[in-house]
Amino acid sequence: INIDDLPRLQQLAKYCENRRKSGKYCGEVFDKLLRQSDSLIAPFSDDDCLVFDIDTFNAETKGGANREAVKQFCGTRRPVFYTQELASPDILHFDTFEQKNRLLAHFYN
């Protein structure tokens, strides 16, 4: 992060608003963070189903996951597996400001 941006980002970290027209818009923090070289915006939306499967993660193939369990968990949504590629950037940003990008459900097994 540019040292000149630090005071502004610290101010926004204490208080910001999720209104694009606000002078204290939270998106300014995310925009500056995403400009860092090692960041990625999560490449999925509410049409997708994020699956954390250790076998798939380690093997980098979708064959590791139990297909029936994934199908049951995801329903009609398209499975997207959390891979080493998604884990590699320092920042993986889930852009949930837009409703279509929000995570829908929590699942603990």
Separate helix tally: 5
Let me know the largest β-sheet: 2 strands, parallel
Strand tally is 4
- Spatial strand arrangement across the major sheet: 1-4
What structural class do the secondary elements suggest?
alpha/beta
Cα distance spanning the termini:
38 Å
Unreliable residue stretches: none
Taken as a percent bin, the fraction of beta residues is: 5-15%
The geometry reads as elongated
Mean pLDDT across the residues is: 82
Descriptive overview:
The chain is of the alpha/beta class and 109 residues long. It has helices at residues 6-14, 27-34, 54-59, 67-74, 84-87, and strands at 39-41, 48-51, 78-81, 91-93. The mean pLDDT is 82.
Descriptors for this entry?
109 residues, alpha/beta, two-stranded parallel sheet, 5 helices, 4 strands
In brief:
With 109 residues, the chain is an alpha/beta fold. The protein is 32% helix and 13% strand. It contains 5 helices and 4 strands; from the N terminus they run ααββααβαβ.
